[in-house]
Amino acid sequence: MDQNMNPQMVALVGKPNSGKSSLFNLLTGLNQKVGNYNGVTVEKKTGKYEGQNIIDLPGINSLRITSPEEKISKQKIIEYAKTGTPLIFIANGMQLADHLMFFSEVADLQMPMALVINFKDEMAKNQVSLNRRELENLIGCPVIQVNARNGEGLQEVKSLISDLKFKTPHAICRSHYDEMTIDEIRNNYLDDVNLSSEKSWKDNKQEYEKRQKTVSSIVRSTVDQGIENSYLNSSKQLDKLLLHPILGFIIFLIVMLLLFQAVFSLAAYPSDWIDTGISALSDAARTYISIPWLADLISNGILAGIAGVMVFIPQIAILFLLLSLLEHTGYLSRISYISDAFLRRFGLSGKSVIPLMSSWACAIPAIMSARIIDDPRERMAVIMASPLMTCSARLPVYTILIAVMFPEPSGAFITIQGVALLALYLIGVMATLIISYIITRRSSIPANQLWTLELPVYRMPNWNNVINTVYQKTKSFVVEAGKIIFIISMLLWVMASFSPKSESYIDSKYAEYSAASQNVELSRESFTLEYSYIGYVGKFIEPVIRPLGYDWKIGIALVTSFAAREVFVGTLATIYSIGSEEESSIIAKLQNEKNPNTGEPVFSMAASISLLLFYVFAMQCMSTVAIVVKETSSWKLALYQFLFMLALAYGFAFLAYQLLS
């Protein structure tokens, strides 16, 4: 046991795709806890093995990288070095030279360590042999080979932890730091590197080249690559197809189409089941609870709030399932490579393509998947701009309003309705890229322009890890964002269910309205909504939205749909007493709705286009606001994003109505 060792915990460190999470799962089993580091949203995993705390740090490529996840890992590694916390470094045996580069950085910090080399089975399959004892002599700490898929070598790792056999390795590249002390080396890594500085680039390059020579010498002395590495050769042959400038791009588009369609279509079934189940519970509450206000609270308040959380679970789970499969097979890195050149023009990189395209299904899982982006400035740009992509929640609004503006399709293959819908999608894409460009150019967040892309070999996914990842990320959404979504839903219910006026006052007003109208167009429920707090909000904002072509009724629909855009359709059905949310009924009613003062159609061409553009740009999704707060740890940023998109929506809607009316 190292005399300077702190035996209270053991940390697992490694590069992405090293199998670190697999080893963590084998060691801790179900005895795990997932949370966030204090003050940040980067997830940490902790577990127990025979009373010992096991910490799984986020994957990191180098101590010189400053993405949110890697910055936390870097800080924790240096903290553990100062406290003597032992560290298990997990390396990919099929890419040992690359992983030993990072190992050499950590070794220079002089802390108790052990090197665990994963993918022992793949090394044997491809005739890659390792002289463990020689490697131990050269690096100065224990070396263990494992297969984290089936647990081979796990007992040796457990013995390492139980008996605290860690040793402080040799400072492999100590000579690179001249006469710096160990504390000075550790503090040197704590400073963020300005990678946009020419001097910093040169210094990093020189250090990298020196370190590479040392590591290459170690690998040559301890690793025999065999006569032919068929496994790596197979990956290279597959890359000739998947990274081809033409065929590779076509395959990429097909994969993206399938991914998007799967999130969009497969999630529809469980989402419908959830919606049906919640509706059945709501009907039961209204039927069997005799106290009206309590029945309404449960059916339209509590259950609606629960539905606002649960309805997104299928999309999130399916998206992260597919992302995990792409990552574990090695294709996710290829997607980043293929799309990088185009996105660079807008200040983004290839890692942004998955979050941006998944926004077409839902912005919530898209924002959560932005965690894969290394550059903090780029990550922030994606979080702030991706809600402008046309998500599935906008589709009910789009289809209703387009159908109001244009007659039924004539049977032609290409219709004006289809062209209009495509135009709305393209507006969303262009707005997203433009906003991303502005943010990455003007943001004060430090940029990490050094984008390192490691192309891992192709392999079958570890299903236990995939399922665990999906479970943990879905649970994180339900626990963290779900609380905010539920509270907001309850607040909207209160505003729609209560009125500053008495029931007798509303009854008398409704009687006057019924007597004055030959045909009573509003039900008692719809009329009451006008006198609710949210109805007064609609009346209050009417002078503000009148220049956009909207009346107070549309104003109520706008306000309620800030909970979720698709609420717009249901609100219109309630306001106009349509009695259902069938599109044909709503379309007919909206087409015939007249302004009582002018006799002109309320949903004219100008007003409808104005409303469409408002929904293109406005962030009418409190669930998205909640997830932005969670991912940025800032209500201020979420509020700024909300107000900025609202200003964009108002501006474009105003121009459209004033120019077309």
Structural overview:
The protein is 61% helix and 6% strand. It has 661 residues and is of the alpha/beta class. Among the domains are: 9-227, P-loop containing nucleotide triphosphate hydrolases (Rossmann fold, 3-Layer(aba) Sandwich), CATH 3.40.50.300; 477-660, no CATH class. The strands form 2 sheets. A 7-stranded mixed beta sheet has the order 2-3-4-1-5-6-8, with helices on both faces. A two-stranded antiparallel ribbon has the order 7-9. It is elongated. The N and C termini lie far apart (81 Å). Residues 34-41, 194-199 and 577-581 have low confidence and may be disordered.
Number of helices: 29
Strand order of the largest sheet: 2-3-4-1-5-6-8
CATH class descriptor of the domain at 9-227 = Alpha Beta
Strand residue percentage = 5-15%
Report the helical percentage.
55-70%
Give average pLDDT, whole number: 78
DSSP strand tally: 9
Main beta sheet strand tally, sense and closure: 7 strands, mixed
